[in-house]
């Protein structure tokens, strides 16, 4: 099937999901920039990150269809099967997140939350000045960057494989419908 220019894009990502995505990206970048020079600002950014994660967790339960965890969180077997299909060039196109993308969201949320938590713990009496807690916090922050690298790589690969600009869809909230485009989905 050829690309169908007359296919009307469908709404996939609601405004909260899009605002969360770009706000979280901006806050994480700001946290990296402020980590050494502006501790007071770094801490406030950490609280904002923590609040966003809490809101995203709530939205993952009560939000729109493709925002809900039930729509995209799959078990390890489904993720591995999808990755195998991807390696063999026969992966299915999903309107929402594919199984690997869902796993990445869970991983990012968990690591971002753990990073924020370990940052906050350093402000408590129990862990103030703890070099061990600081090392854990910094390691988790580095892991965020590694995951973001895989996330961006996955978005680029998926965009190329399915002839679809996924970055644009996270801005507009819209994607072409299933069945309307290369590969016949």
Features:
7 helices, Cytochrome b561 bacterial/Ni-hydrogenase domain-containing protein, heme binding, mainly alpha, cell membrane, Di-haem_cyt_TM, elongated, Hydrogenase_cytochrome
Write a structural description.
With 185 residues, the protein is mainly alpha-helical. It has one domain. It is 65% helix and 2% strand. It has helices at residues 15-34, 39-62, 69-72, 76-87, 99-121, 131-161, 166-172; strands at residues 10-11, 174-175. A two-stranded antiparallel ribbon has the order 1-2. Helix 2 crosses helix 5. It is elongated. The termini are close together. The model has no long low-confidence stretch (mean pLDDT 92). Residues 12-173 form the Cytochrome b561 bacterial/Ni-hydrogenase domain. This is Cytochrome b561 bacterial/Ni-hydrogenase domain-containing protein.
Task: Based on Cα principal axes, name the global outline.
Answer: elongated
Low-confidence stretches: none
Give the total of domains: 1
Structural class: mainly alpha
How are the strands of the biggest sheet laid out side by side? 1-2
Subcellular location: Cell membrane
Protein name: Cytochrome b561 bacterial/Ni-hydrogenase domain-containing protein
Transmembrane segments: 45-62, 100-120, 140-160
InterPro entries: Cyt_b561_bac/Ni-Hgenase (IPR011577), Di-haem_cyt_TM (IPR016174), Hydrogenase_cytochrome (IPR051542)
